[in-house]
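Quick question, first post here. What does this chain look like in 3D?
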Amino acid sequence: MAENEMKCPECGGKMERSRECGVPVCTGCGHHLGLARCYCGWAADGGDGRDQLIEMGECLDDDY
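> Answer (accepted):
Ran it through. Tokens below.
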């Protein structure tokens, strides 16, 4: 791993900025750096991040 590459705080894997989400995402475990849930559907608790965001009152486009 290059010196300037970020390591995942969950598994130590490589973090790469996701074009889909716009945040660093681990290529190994899928952890999204700095997020608890994401509009792409990922959630730290293993649930559906998109549904969780909607339940919290976020307005998300259906075409994502």
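The mean pLDDT is 91.
Residues 54 and 60 are 7 Å apart (CA to CA).
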